[in-house]
C-alpha cells in the first residue's frame, strides 16, 4: 500500500488560487513515488477573482472548492471532511490563493489570520508527527502557526531572480529561521517534519521548479 497524502488546494490559477504547475507537479511526483494523493479544498468563496490575462480583479464570484476541482479532475473533498488519522502526510502547493483564500497574508502580512480549517489541519498533522510539505508562498502558513520552525522560500535578498525575497524577512519577524536555498533545493526541518522549497518564488525555468518540488515530495513520502 502506498502512502496516502492529503493535498490542499486554494483555487485554480496563480493570482487567485493554487498555482496550477506547482499543483500538477505535486500530483505527478506523488504518483511517481507510488503515493496516493487525496485532494481537499475549503468550501468557501475566493477573496476575489482575477482576470489572468489583464492581471486585474473582476466582479465575478467563485468558490475555492469548485475551482480546485478543476485541477483535481473532480476528485476532491471538502477540507472540513479531512481526517488526519487515515493519512500519512500533507502537502500544500503555492499560488496567491494561499495568501488570499487560505489566509489573509496578501493583505495583512505577518499580522494575517489563517483560515480555521487550514490551521486545524496543519496543527493536526504536526501533533501527529506526520510530515508537511510546503512550496512557494505556502511556508508562510507554517511560519505563522509554528513559531521557531525552519523554512525556505528561496532567498532573503530581493533581486530580479528573487522578486519576492521580502517574504523571507517577514517570516523571520514571526520568529522563524529562514534558510536560503536554490530553487532546485529543499530545506528539511527535522524537528517539525516540515519540508519546504521555493518553486515560483524564483524566476527560474519551469523544469527547475518542477525538480525542486519533486525533491520536496520525495522527502515528504520518505518521512511518512
TrEMBL record:
Coiled-coil regions listed in the entry: none
SUPFAM superfamilies associated with the record: Class I glutamine amidotransferase-like
Entries under Gene3D superfamilies matching the protein: 3.40.50.880
UniProt superkingdom: Eukaryota
Protein name: GAL3A protein
Lineage, broadest ranks: Eukaryota, Metazoa, Chordata, Craniata, Vertebrata
Amino acid at each position: 500500500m502506498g502512502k496516502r497524502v492529503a493535498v490542499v488546494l486554494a483555487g485554480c490559477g496563480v493570482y487567485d488560487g493554487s498555482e496550477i504547475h506547482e499543483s500538477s507537479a505535486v500530483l505527478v511526483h506523488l504518483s511517481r513515488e507510488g503515493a496516493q494523493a487525496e485532494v481537499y479544498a475549503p468550501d468557501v468563496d475566493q477573496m476575489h477573482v482575477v482576470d489572468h490575462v489583464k492581471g486585474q480583479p473582476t466582479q465575478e464570484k467563485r468558490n475555492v472548492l469548485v475551482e480546485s476541482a478543476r485541477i483535481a479532475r473532480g476528485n476532491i473533498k471538502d477540507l472540513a471532511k479531512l481526517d488526519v488519522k487515515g493519512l500519512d502526510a500533507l502537502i500544500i502547493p503555492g499560488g496567491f490563493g494561499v495568501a488570499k483564500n487560505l489566509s489573509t497574508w496578501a493583505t495583512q502580512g505577518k499580522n494575517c489570520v489563517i483560515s480555521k480549517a487550514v490551521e486545524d489541519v496543519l496543527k493536526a498533522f504536526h501533533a501527529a508527527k506526520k510530515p508537511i510539505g510546503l512550496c512557494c508562498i505556502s511556508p508562510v502558513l507554517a511560519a505563522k502557526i509554528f513559531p521557531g520552525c525552519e523554512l525556505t522560500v528561496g532567498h532573503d535578498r530581493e533581486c530580479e531572480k528573487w522578486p519576492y525575497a521580502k517574504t523571507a524577512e517577514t517570516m523571520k519577524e514571526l520568529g522563524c529561521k529562514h534558510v536560503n536555498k536554490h530553487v532546485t533545493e529543499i530545506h528539511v526541518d527535522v524537528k517539525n517534519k516540515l519540508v519546504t522549497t521555493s518553486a515560483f518564488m524564483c524566476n527560474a525555468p519551469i523544469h527547475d521548479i518542477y525538480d525542486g518540488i519533486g525533491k520536496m515530495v520525495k522527502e515528504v513520502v520518505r518521512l511518512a
